[in-house]
What we know:
- By secondary structure, the protein is an alpha+beta fold.
- It folds into 2 domains: 2-172, no CATH class; 173-238.
- It contains 9 helices and 4 strands, in the order ββααββααααααα.
- Strand 1 (2-6) and strand 2 form a beta hairpin.
- Helix 1 packs across helix 2, helix 2 packs across helix 3 (89-117) and helix 3 (89-117) packs antiparallel against helix 7 (179-187).
- The longest helix is centred in the first third of the chain and has 33 residues, at 33-65.
- The protein starts with a strand and ends with a helix.
Amino acid sequence: xIRFSLFGIPVEVQPFFWIxxxxxxxxxxxxSREDFLAVALFVIAAFISVLIHExxxxxxxxxxxGGYASIIxxxxxxxxxxxxGRFTRHQRFLMIAAGPGAGFAFLLAILVTLSLIFDSTDxxxxxxxxxxxxxxxxxxxxxxxxxxxxxxxxFFLADLLLINFWWGVLNLLxxxxxxxxxxxxxxxxxxxxxxxxxxxxxxxMSLFGFLKLGLYPGFFFGYFAxxxxxxxxxxxxx
Length: 238
């Protein structure tokens, strides 16, 4: 267990966080020194990105509604809490949206920083290639030449781009307890409908994960489908 404080907010990192992030980084397939180093870089990128995401929640919540802010990084990501905080519906929306918003802002900061060093067209091409598998042609290749000579910087930057973009997008899906599900819970009533939406979306994503993304994403969304089903069933009994 690792504990520290950042901006006056206590942070706890549980052991399962490192294990799950390593598995998502394909530690089970690593069989060389380079592979294990790539996994370590992915875990570091995930730690930085998830912490920034949760800080977005915690700092915004502390600013808008007060309370005692704290962060826990656990097996399925992170949890930011503002115990004792009082929020209007609009403030709660802003606090929830600030998490993925912080990740997208961090992604933009990375791209702007790279654009100050390399040709901006090459930076856009690099980001597009890693995020979407294709994109505009490179203009000077200076960035790619640099990254080819520094492969682990290449891996680290690619991990940061993927995590802060795609994890942010997936986190906005209307699936409880993801941020998108919590936003849905603010505006959709009755709550049974929130869990039904989450069940359908999580089941679809689980099937897509198993077919296209791999075992762990499929299991991840399958677990959330089960959570939404159990919550919907418990409301039906009430």
